[in-house]
Amino acid sequence: MSQQPHTSADAAAAVRQDFLHSFLLDPARHSPDAPAVVESPGAGRTTVTSYAQLTALTSQFADALTALDLEPGARVILEADAGAEAIALLLACSQAGLVFVPVSPQTPRPRLDLLLETVRPALHVQELNGSRSDLPRPLGTARFGPGGLTVERAPETGPPRRRTPCPTDPAYIIFTSGTTGRPKGVVMSHRAVVAFYRGMLAHGIAGPGDRIASTSPLQFDFSLLNIGLALGSGAAVVPVPPSLVRWPRHLLRVLRETGATQVNGVPSIWRQVLRHEPRRLAALTGLRGVLFCGEEFPLPELRHLQELLPAARIVNCYGATESMACSFADVPNPLPEGTERLSIGVAHPGAEILLVGADGRVIVEPGVPGEIHLRSPALFSGYWDDPEATAATLVPDPLCPQSGQRVLRSGDLAVRRPDGTYAFAGRTDSQVQINGNRVELGEVERRLADHPAATAAAALPLPLPGGGLQLAAFVVLAEDAPPAGAGDLRAFCAESLPSYMVPQEIRLVDRLPVTAHGKVDRAALAAQAAEDAGAAPDTADAAAGGAR
Description:
By secondary structure, the protein is α/β, with parallel strands linked by helices. It contains 17 helices and 28 strands.
């Protein structure tokens, strides 16, 4: 029997599915009235945005953006917290062929200025009540809300050189901490993001009817993972405002009033809940899933969470911003006694993990540590305007360099377990995770060293008595410098660094210890801090920083 030929409309529809907005708004075709975004910013103030409403708002925003006549690939700074309107706006950027760059409203002005200088956006968009002002020309400015997008100052641009968006175009740029003291812009294409979403959805983590609470700020890729998991599954995303996540009772109220069935976040969001509100958490019988990422989950806290939510499926998500994530592994329930490290599983469908030794050899033996190299269709395009850093991270395939294929050199160490899965085993560099936030210690140290009174600085993660890590710094002051205390140094950092990169503890020291090779001896600093606190140092955690 002959088959009907495919039409050009069929081909166009297939291509559209490789764009971020088309993929995530697809449920509107068959379930337009289903909830897409559920919000509860205050007690008794729950609102529901359906897929049809989200699609209509996205189109309204996209029409306003298209009217600006920007060429495909132009960057748009999106300064907002997650919510229905902000999600619609990032989808509208996709629909208009523009690249969204999410930024926190709490970003210090010097850091925002650095991002503007780096990414050269055409437009800055903030919420109606946003307080950012005096932004430089030729940058355009606009505000958005439920009523639409209002352009305050049109971008000063030339005639577009392109007209047709492509799935290989950048969809967004996420800025992370950088080793050079400048933030690194991770560029992700539509095709890569959609490829990741498809691989993630193959795990069946969520489905229609689920309501997935996202506890990460919009400027972190984990938030985009949560949005993709929810909308890609035909479920609803429940954005929890950052101001509520840190308060256990407020967080649990949002979960209760929105009917959340799953909570996604870094492990540290659970610490105060487990400590102060265990009965309220156990009462959330509709909560049947937890996904965590960004750092290792302290095993005593994980066991406590399993006791309070015995029916919940708990998933360990591992990966880097450069691939959004890499793998999803179910945590055994109950967690076996004697467990020291959780499995990170294997790469999601369509991707593959390789371990490579320091000698460049691909490691196949169990129990031998190597650096994770990821082969995947979901890899980032490169670091914005940084070809050298890109070439160091997107490297030739170690198995077949002749092919020209690139794989992601992650900087993460792992070992292959006898069952073929992998376990995380630390980092090869100075990158750490503090409460799920990626921090390059070098960027913190450079900022501290810029203080007029400082001559040297070293930053490192230190374990907290109740579990988790805090960012600490050791600073040497010049003898002839004006007086400066720890508070002065913290305030200096806060002027240009995001809050998660400001050291919670700063110690003034006469000198920094060094190793036999002349490098700062971080292990000695961690040991000294532990001795001062009256506890044995955990140098493994201090070195790894809880990196995912």
